[in-house]
């Protein structure tokens, strides 16, 4: 799994990184809220371990941002032990809450426990659209749809983050990587081809911003 660890204490991040990487996981580290948001927007994460006490912004604000834009489980770390603090954490969307001090193994176990509820499920459904990730297979109204590799990756990115609007540059960075000179108009062509294959209504153009999944389809409104 891909794990983002957000804590301004380097000793804590180093220990957690060691435990996760020994488990075979990929880790990302942020010591400030600003750098954390940048990673969240660039990397498809499976779980976030978030300390509430950061030098530049409140951990609660980061949690709210994540939950507004993505479907990523968040484990909060804090020295606050009152029930009011815990309830506030859950109210803003935290999936788990751990009070310091803690054992790193506990964080690893809690993170793995959250994975089945994350956006990395093996079968994702959006309206009549099904994505079977282990087989890289797409079904629409129970019929198989053939997509190119780039079309599949773009569709998966949008479906795993249905509330977020992705600009052309966002899609290029996530699908093709940072070291690339892909023309942004290529993304428009991929979207056009996707719409022909999975029906126009599924992918929405947000004028001046980019593309996202049309949530009205999921709500059966169209």
Provide structural commentary.
This protein is 42% helix and 21% strand. With 222 residues, the protein is an alpha/beta fold. It folds into two domains: 2-117, Response regulator (Rossmann fold, 3-Layer(aba) Sandwich); 123-218, Winged helix-like DNA-binding domain superfamily/Winged helix DNA-binding domain (Arc Repressor Mutant, subunit A). The strands form three sheets. It has a five-stranded parallel β-sheet with strand order 2-1-3-4-5, with helices on both faces. The chain has a four-stranded antiparallel β-sheet with strand order 6-7-8-9, with helices on one face. Helix 4 links the parallel strand 4 and strand 5 (96-99). Helix 7 (168-176) crosses helix 8 (184-198). The mean pLDDT is 85.
Key structural traits:
single chain; four-stranded antiparallel beta sheet; 222 residues; Arc Repressor Mutant, subunit A; 11 strands; 42% helix; Rossmann fold; 2 domains; alpha/beta; elongated
Under CATH, the topology of the largest domain can be stated as Rossmann fold
Helix content: 40-55%
Along the chain, the helix and strand elements come as EHEHEHEHEHEEEEHHHEEH
CATH-assigned homologous superfamily of the largest domain: Response regulator
Strand order of the main beta sheet, please?
A: 2-1-3-4-5
Q: So, CATH architecture of the largest domain?
A: 3-Layer(aba) Sandwich
Largest sheet: 5 strands, parallel
